[in-house]
Amino acid sequence: MNKVSFIRKISLVVIGALVLFKTFIFCEINAYNHHIERGEVWVDVHTKRQEMLVLKEALILHRYPISSSKKGLGNKKLSEQTPKGWHIIQKKHGETEPFGMIFKYRWATGKIAKIPSLTAKDLVTSRILHLSGLEKGINNGGQVDSYARCIYIHGTNEETLIGTPSSRGCIRMKNKDIIEVFDILPEGTKVYIH
User: Fold this and answer.
1) Digit-coded pLDDT (tens) for 158-173
2) What is the per-residue DSSP string for 28-65?
3) What domains lie within the chain, and their CATH numbers?
């Protein structure tokens, strides 16, 4: 191996390590500043990166692409924005439903979405994780209540838009990903959206 090739390989390893270290440090600081217990599994939704991490304390277990609101972050009712802050998974819906099942008001309609497809409707498909805010006056209560706003992490028929802000407030995922996350995370799991 020549000297230039060796230096390139070392540089790539160092750059990769720094990127992972930065993500790890962010998650560690975030977790411990917000009372994540030892061994606790939680979720970090990073809207700027359009990415959702499932972590155990500060260790990244899973990484998924997502789509948050096309109108950005915000907590007000009727804003169609993705709410910021700490939440929990209050209720899970769709455990026994098939891939692509369309939900209306959290009820399975019996219809299966064509996936991927672009429609005028913002379809909720496959599984739903209904979020409830933990921060009074920020995402809990009054005009900022995430649970009353029906903020979900859910599957979508518009999988080609995953990775770009395109929802009406919820966190959209690919259907295979939401089914996997649904099976991993119990009700009561903490979710941090920023």
Assistant:
1) 999 999 999 999 999 9
2) HHHHHHTTPPTT-EEEEEETTTTEEEEEETTEEEEEEE
3) 3-193 (2.40.440.10)
